[in-house]
Amino acid sequence: MKNRNRLISLEKRITSCKECPRLVDWQKTVAVNKISRYNDWDYWGKPVPSFGKENAELLVVGLAPAAHGANRTGRIFTGDRSGEWLYRALYEFGFCNLPESKHIDDGLELNNCRITAALHCAPPMNKPAVTELNNCRQFLIEELLLLKRIKVIIALGKIAFDMVILSAKELKLTESKNSYKFSHGGEVRLKNETVITGKLTESMFNKIFKQVRTIIV
Ligand code: SF4
After folding, report:
1. Which ranges constitute the DSSP H helices of the chain?
2. pLDDT for 214
3. What 8-state DSSP symbol labels residue 77?
């Protein structure tokens, strides 16, 4: 099976996953209760798959879908404030065709970029349990195996960074002597990839994408 088909199959398995009962319940509860400004939305209410091309050189890893963002729209980082900043920065630096991301059928396409998350289900209070992160990390490991051209991984926040490093160690993408410390705006080298870390602010995104463009030209 080609990598593209393997990724499509992985996305389907993610969307139907029920490995973490607490999260499955929570995302459905949020989808039923909604919030007033999105009362007319039919919430997605399921695990949110990754988004983007299989031959991407840039991989963005967030924490998890937002309860009323991606858990509502069904596309990662779509429909919340941090997504607005992320897609605007992606657009300004040439990684997507539109400056905003509103809903799953808005025509947005990523260019040389793929976006995923440490956790594919929205967690209560944005706080996943360790067992939930470990369950979902199996998907990140599979994805890293299938994405053969990645040069840069942007890890948004410490949890995303830890999950990337743990997965990379398992796949032997790291130099065993190195220790990998998280810092906002920091950069660490794996064997072949650079991991850039950042937090979810607009100014941080601009700084990060300037760093990315020194590596992916
Ligand atoms: S967080 Fe990941 S492993 Fe857990 S139910 Fe959602 S998709 Fe499955």
Report:
1. 3-15, 21-33, 70-73, 81-92, 130-146, 158-170, 202-215
2. 95
3. T
Under 8 Å between Cβ of 206 and 89: yes
Domain that holds residue 114: 3-215
Tokens of 6: 């393997």
φ/ψ (deg, to 5) at 124: -55, 135
Pick the closest to residue 118 from 71, 76, 73, 181 (CA basis): 76
Q: In terms of C-beta density within 10 A (0-12 exposed, 13-18 middle, 19 or more buried), how is residue 158 classed?
A: middle
Q: What is the pLDDT of residue 204?
A: 85
Question: The domain spanning residue 44 has which CATH number?
Answer: 3.40.470.10
Residue 30 pLDDT exceeds 90: yes
Dist CA 148 CA 12 (whole Å): 20
Pocket probe mutation, ligand 1, options 48, 136, 163, max atoms within 8 Å of Cβ: 136
Domains identified in the chain, total number:
1
- The model carries a pTM of 0.96
Q: Which of 12, 23, 76 to mutate to test the pocket of ligand 1 (most atoms within 8 A of CB)?
A: 23
Residue 161 CB-density burial (10 A; 0-12 exposed, 13-18 middle, 19+ buried): buried
